[in-house]
Amino acid sequence: MPHWLQLMADSLPTLLWAGLIFTIPLTLLSFTFGMALGLATAVGRLFGPAPVRAIARFYVWIIRGTPLLVQLFVIFYGLPRIGILLDAFPAALIGFTLNIGAYSSEIIRAAISSVPKGQWEAAYSIGMNWRQAMTRTILPQASRVAVPPLSNTFISLVKDTSLAAAITVPELFQAAQRIVATTYEPLILYIEAALIYLVLSSVLSALQARLETRFARYGGMMEAQR
User: Fold this and answer.
1) What are phi and psi of 50, to 5 degrees?
2) Cα separations (Å) of 213 from 9, 114, 141, 148, 192?
3) What is the DSSP letter of 212?
4) Rounded to whole angstroms, what are the CA distances from 43 to 32, 48, 122?
5) Which contacts of 125-133 are long-range, i.e. CB under 8 A and separated by 24 or more positions?
6) CB of 35 within 8 A of CB of 104?
7) Which of 83, 174, 175, 188 has the fewest CB atoms nearer than 10 Å to its CB?
């Protein structure tokens, strides 16, 4: 067996284990919390009082206007200067959650805004209150618009988790860096890590396509019922 192939075979279990224990949980937790934060931010910007709208706009402005890597450094290396100490994984989780929350809030806000005002009026006309109209009428329709860009955001997050290596989270990419430090084979190991990310992204892209098809079919049924 060629040396490079043997090296890849030997390092594969370590890389996959790091991905399973750190990369995938970090991705799932960050996206889940980020979506909740994004929904709250979007609703606050659209329907909240002036102070809430101002805070939401400021949060989105700060996060979207600064690099994700800098945000992670501020949380992990900067906050200890004011007495806030965080382990690497929670710091990464907070950083990714804040980042996803800001970007997803703009997607959700645009999706909610795309629903015709007549849908609100129709919901109110049959006795729904604001919360019922939002959860039963507006959000189901807005989700059809939001799913494709949110899916892209999720796929990007899988790759962005490699930045957590910079704050010592032992995820997939840092596992590759550690092996490189002992084998002195950066080209082989980094290509292997890239291939693993590529496989994950490809699987998620296939799932995204199926999800979009399902939502499109649901949307067609809704249109037919009208």
Assistant:
1) -55, -45
2) 37, 20, 15, 10, 32
3) H
4) 17, 7, 20
5) 130/47
6) yes
7) 83
pLDDT tens-place string over residues 19-69 = 999 999 999 999 999 999 999 999 999 999 999 999 999 999 999 999 999
User: Per residue, what are the HEC states of 2-34?
Assistant: CHHHHHHHHHHHHHHHHHHHHHHHHHHHHHHHH
Q: Tell the residue number behind the tokens 């919360």, with chain if given.
A: 131
- pLDDT 10s digits, 69-121: 999 999 999 999 999 999 999 999 999 999 999 999 999 999 999 999 999 99
Round to whole Å and give the CA distance between 137 and 146. 15
Q: CA-to-CA distance for 32 and 157, rounded, in angstroms? A: 12
Using alpha carbons only, how large is the chain's radius of gyration in Å? 21
Q: How far apart are CA 189 and CA 197, in angstroms?
A: 13
The answer to whether the CB of 174 falls within 8 A of the CB of 21 is no
DSSP letter at 66 equals: S
Scanning the structure block, which residue is given the tokens 């909610």?
Answer: 112
- Domains observed in the chain: 3-225 (1.10.3720.10)
